[in-house]
Amino acid sequence: MAVAPAPDVEPSLEVTQFSDESNDSTFHFQILRLTNQLYVWIGCNSARMGNLYAALPTRWDKTASVAALVGGGADSTGASMARRLSMRTGWSIVLASNIPSNAPVLEAFAEQRLFQELRSMGYIKPASKPLNGPAAPLAPI
């Protein structure tokens, strides 16, 4: 049985780092862009890795599949963020986060800031525009 050769893929790696502050907390972000994949680390007040999640878009569902790789559960806040990142980018996502689980304001800030940066880098797909005006009338049968 013959094996088809793998397509030529140019390996690439782009690293982006930035920090921001909110509610007396300092957030550190690191984004590693690989070929069709993002590795995102979010540190809150420390350089600890925290929980690690993987999210992948699926062909048959509008949502992304998520797995907790280290710590956390598939229903935790980091898993939700990884799922939304995968759905918005269309790529596989590996997300490490040490945002406190009992701080929804901090999580919301971190996600908003991350999405802002990813949008400016061109990694987030633009949102679909709503229809303008009334729907077209149906053609008679």
What is the fold's blueprint, element by element?
Elements: E1 14-22, E2 25-34, E3 37-44, E4 51-57, E5 64-70, H1 77-89, E6 92-97, H2 104-120
Parallel strand pairs: 3-6
Antiparallel strand pairs: 1-2, 2-3, 4-5, 4-6
TL;DR of this structure?
The protein is of the alpha+beta class and 141 residues long.
Question: CATH architecture, please?
Answer: 2-Layer Sandwich
Termini separation comes to 54 Å
As residue ranges, the low-confidence spans are 130-139
> For this structure, what is the CATH class?
Alpha Beta
Overall shape: it is globular
Strand content range = 25-35%
Protein name: Proteasome assembly chaperone 4
InterPro entries: PAC4
Organism: Physcomitrium patens (Spreading-leaved earth moss)
Describe the structure.
With 141 residues, the protein is an alpha+beta fold. It has a single domain, classed as 2-Layer Sandwich (Ribosomal Protein S5, domain 2). Helices cover 21% and strands 33% of the residues. The chain contains two helices and six strands; from the N terminus they run βββββαβα. It has helices at 77-89, 104-120; strands spanning 14-22, 25-34, 37-44, 51-57, 64-70, 92-97. The chain is globular. The model is unreliable at 130-139 (pLDDT under 50). It holds the Pfam family PAC4. It comes from Physcomitrium patens (Spreading-leaved earth moss). This is Proteasome assembly chaperone 4.
Descriptive key words:
six-stranded mixed beta sheet; Proteasome assembly chaperone 4; alpha+beta; disordered C terminus; Ribosomal Protein S5, domain 2; 2 helices; 141 residues
